[in-house]
Amino acid sequence: MPSPAQQQAVLFDFDGTLGRSLKAWTLAYQEALRAIGVHRDEHAVRQACFSKRGIDVQREFQVADLAAFAEDVWSRVLVKMPEVSMYPDVEETLQSLGPASFKLGIVTNTRRAHLEAALTRWPVRELFHTRVTIDDVQRGKPDPEAIHAALESLDVPPSRAWMVGDSPPDIEAGNAAGVRTIAFSPEENQEYFSADTLRKFSPTHVARSFAEVRRLIFAED
Predict the structure, then answer these.
(1) 8 A C-beta contact, residue 132 and residue 173
(2) With 50 as the cut, is the pLDDT of residue 4 above it?
(3) What confidence tens digit (pLDDT) does each residue in 45-71 have?
(4) Exposure winner among 37, 52, 71, 100, fewest CB in 10 A?
(5) Is 3.40.50.1000 the CATH classification of the domain at 8-20+85-219?
(6) Ordered strands of the 130-132 beta sheet
(7) What is the pLDDT of residues 19-30, one digit of tens each?
């Protein structure tokens, strides 16, 4: 058994990193907008809802009640979550990291119910030592609060940890927490957050696949 000084942690974002749920979020936004009489194609929804603050979305689409709109989106995503699949090589990566003295965690701005709706169907659920959701913190990413909470529960210092995520807030939170960061940027995610966009936030590495994530982590072990 490795000593605490030898233990490392790898923390993963959920949406767009472990789970291929970005399409589900796009459709949920689209449906919620239609419900208030706003019709936009998927490209417009991605540009507006994945890169801007809620208040900006409210102004752009003239949403009268932002809280009600947000709840409608959440409810529509929850229905879609059981159909969300993992990205290729997620299981292989987690299976290889666990026995190699890495503690594994999920740090997500998604609600716990939404996370569990997908995760309970996957064969990797029990491989995670901690799961910190937006329900567990006062401030979501890009604030580092959730990363600090995960590392505290794992008893691993930031200098021995990684954060893997697909969006700028993941990288910003990881950098602020003092962990090494990997921007996960597969081809299917480019229309949401391109590799060039993610590089502007100074990740330690950019990876196009989970096989590459695995290689990068073991290369610096």
Answers:
(1) no
(2) no
(3) 888 888 667 777 878 888 889 899 999
(4) 37
(5) yes
(6) 130-132, 102-107, 8-12, 161-165, 180-184, 205-207
(7) 999 999 999 999
According to DSSP, the β-strands at 205-207 and 8-12 are unpaired
Instruction: Report the distance separating Cα 182 and Cα 188, nearest Å.
Output: 17
The pair of structure tokens assigned to 109 is 């701005």
